[in-house]
Structures are given as structure tokens and as C-alpha cells.
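Appendix B, Record 12. Input sequence as logged:
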Amino acid sequence: MTTADKINALRASMRQNNLDGFLVPRADRFQNEYVPASDERLAWLLGFTGSAGLALVLLDRVILFVDGRYTVQAAQQTDPALVECVQIGAGLSYQSWLRDNLRPEQQIACDAWLHSQAQYQSFAQACQQAGAALQNSENLLDALWQDQAQAPENPVVAHLQQYAGQSSADKFVAVAESLAANGVDATVISATDSVAWLFNLRGSDIPYNPVFGAYALVDAAGSAELFIDEARLANEALDSLPEAVRLSPPDEFEVLLERLGEVNASVQLDFSSIPAAIAQCLKAGGAEVVNAADPCVLPKAIKNSVEAEGARQAHIRDGVAVSKFLYWLDNDRPQAATELEVAEQLRHTRLQVAEQFGVELKDLSFNTISATGENGALPHYSATPEHDCRLNTGDIYLVDSGGQYLDGTTDITRTVILDELPAGELANEMRDRYTRVLKGHISLALARFPQGTSGNQLDSIARYSLWQGGFDFDHGTGHGVGSYLCVHEGPQNISPRPNNQALLPSMIVSNEPGYYKAGAYGIRIENLVLVIEQAGGERPMLGFETLTLAPIDRRLIDAEMLNDAERGWLNRYHQRVYETVAPHLSDTEQQWLAKATATI
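Logged structural output:
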């Protein structure tokens, strides 16, 4: 079926169901950021493969909503004769578009399992304001997707306490105490990383994320019920579960929701992540639904001492791998090397270094962004066999990658010049933009701030130098990172978006300002940092410990643009990189690293 055939078939189904529109999100039944092949509905319907997006299929038009990361990609991957791409942000939201563009009496439908309760409510309100209506529906698209993959049911394994740092039983006690404090009977946990963290289990249902699809119920007495096929759990996983855990088949989950309604239980749900269908089922059955944060999210984000030390060790290994890769890129890269071949070299190097340290690279933490030249201007570019560009001398090359290790998750971006800078004004421009990004990165790394400060209060620090030149970037400056879990996690972030969550000691967050010139090149410098307490001052203060250890390309730096504090940070950082990484390199690699980390 062509894209036009698929859209027409969906519209025919809509007419049969007396619908004027159908919402197609990039989401699964657990609201994961990354989804299995069985849930890549936007890719199947429209050809768009970005990690975030929402389509509204109307009888006379198709709208694809994306954020600033994907505006170029969406335009490239979709047919403009069939699809209108709309960028969300800068004052335009899904809700405002629905409110201003839907017509009275229009009936819009969606699969409530694929939208959070908060999103469903906001869409329903926007439809109502337009005089239209939103209703829950069977998934009309899935009925048309004949070769849709089966939902994954991969094995689930134990995440040992030597890496987790806390027993699952202790976590249940903490969750139960929070429920009792909120005066509720129970909570339903649907976020896969929360379930994995709470039960000290890991899986592989989602690409690059060691999680598995399962819902859980925890009550105020500390008992827990996990809805999963018991055959999926390895023996050590079964043995690791506390006595308070009961395993139930997935098809009994909706029965549980009905039972909670029958006894008029008060059930805490996180409306920002819980599928709307769960909230609707509980309410319809008579349960009292209370909107409150997922009780796993904050303790999961605050790494215990074992997890924090594990992150440090994971970043040492990862720094060795990335440094070896950058040496290879400078010295041994074949002239005809392409983006995918170079990304594979980095993956292979991570595997080799992990073996060198006597540990296992469990997986990458996301699909490596290997982007040369103008492809780097797409923040979430993904090379494919059909679009796999050769790396050429004089191009800026951006590589954003990470690894999943039992003791930590890594995420690093380095931007380098391939072989040598081009002559003339372009070289001056590249150095200027690169140095502005570096200045922002260093300013955030050096930030000292009072306890209670949230990430959105710090975001402008990383943008200030870019702003002075009239530049900016359209993604957040930082995201939380899990401990052998998802590479993107909350509740903390560093972003212009409003977020009242304070940065707390032992949270991990990325520091990744960037600059992107459409059709030319992209620049991003990313390290992961750990929030730490800092002594001195009238108030309790916090700062950052940089975890990532790999050289920053000195060839692209205009040293005259750096002030003394920035130059000092860079030199201290590079000295630390050399002292930590060099002992694990060959003699020739050490010589290269000495030059790459030389004092400016």
C-alpha cells in the first residue's frame, strides 16, 4: 500500500464509524519514548520516523505535528501533497491548533491506550472549545496494518543489588509510605522504567532501553502485583522478587481495574504518563482517581551511592572507547567511510573496551546519531542504508552516542572537524559557532546555584553566548539519565520549558547546548553531569560534577573567545581526561590524546 492508499483506507474506516478525524500518535500502551516496531504507526502511515510526533487524519487533510527537532526531517520524509507538517512550540500547541482549526460538530477519535490521561483531557477540552468532540475508539489504523509486528515479549532478568544499590523490598516500603501519606489505597504504575526500577528487573522489549512491558499495582500496605507472563521471567528474576509480589497474567489487568472500582478504592495515577484508558476504566467502575506523581520517578532520578559510583565507572570505560574512536577517526578512518560504517566502528570499539575492562556492553543507549556536513543540522538525524553519506575532509562531523552497562547509562556528543578546517570565512564561522557552544557548555558546567533551583532557571546560562551572536537552538539543554535504564528520564531537565522540579543532589543530567545551520552543519557538545553539594556561602549551594571523559576538539576552538575561567575549566577537564583515559590506550593513542588534550 502507498501512503495515499493507507490514508484513504483509514478515511474509509472513519466514515464507517461516523468520524471526522482520527489521532495517530507515536506511542505505545506504556507511553514509552522509544517504541517497538509494533507501535511505529506514524512510520507505517506517513513514513515519518522521528521519536516524537502526532498525526491528525481528517477527511480532507492530514496534519503531522512535530517539535523543532524534527521540522526538517518531517518535511523530508513525508509527501507535501498529502501531509501538512506543523511545528509545535513558539506559542503553538496541539491544543491551540485543535481549538482554532476544528469545526463545530466534528467527531474526533483516538485510542485511549496510546495517550496519557493529561493529554487526552487537554485534547478533549480543545475539541470542546471548538464545538467538536473527542471520543475513545478501537484503533482503526491497527485494523488496516496487515503486517504489523507482534508486541515483544522478551525475557526479563534480575538487576542485582550490587548495581541497583537498594532492594526491591525497600523500594516497596518507600512507595507504600508515600501512598499512605497521600491517603490513597493503591497506585497503578505504567511507566516501564518505573516498573523496572521498582522490581529491580530489566528487559529488552524496547530498542536500547532495558525495560519490559508490564503494569503494576502497589498498595498502601506494601504489597505489589505485577501483570506479566511468568514464563518471561528467568529463574534468578523470579527468585529475586520479594514475598510481597504477586504475579498475574496480563489479561487480568483490566479485571483488576474493574475490581478496584467495585470496592470504590482510591487509586493514585500519574496523569502525565498513565494511559487514559486506565483512568477511564477506573472511573467508570466507581474508583476514586487521584492525580499525583508516579512515586518511583523522583527516587529513581536521585541516584544512591552505588548508582552514582557505577555511573563514574561506566563513564571511564565509555571515555576510553570514545577516545579510541576519535583517534581512529583522525588516523585510521578509510577515505570512503560512511556515517553508518563510522557508527559501527564506534559500537565495535565500545564492545572491545568493555571486554578489555572485563564487563559487558549490554546495548547502545540509543541509535547513534552519526551525521556529517549538513546532516548534522538535524539534531536527531538517523543515517539509513538509503541515506548514508560519506565523511569528507573539511566537513564537521557530529556523533551522539551512548552505551548501556550494568552499572550505568552513558550519553555523549562530540563534534569534530574531519582532517582539517576549510580555508576562509567558513572556517572562521565554524570556529565562532563551535566556541559559542563550548562557552555555553562550560558556563553550565561551572554553574553554582542554591538548593531549590530548577533546570529551566539554568537553561539560559548555556544559551547566553549564542544569544549574543544572534543564535539559538531548538532543543532542551539537558535531560535526566537513568541507571542502566532509559537514556532520557525525568522529572528533572534543563530546558526553557516550565518545570518546577528542583535539581537535587545525585541527579544525573546532560549538558548539551548546540548550534545548527540548516543545509550546512551542526554542532553539539554533550557531557553528563552529576548534581553535587558545594560548600561555602550563606545558603546551601549545588553544582555539577562532570562524568563524561573524552577530548573536546581543540581545532575548532577560537581560544581568544574564551575568558580565563572558561580556559581554566577546559584545561582542567582535558588534564583529567588524559590522566584517566591514557593508561588504557596504546602508545600511539596516548601520543594522540596528549595533543588532543594539550593546554590552551
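The longest helix spans residues 305-331.
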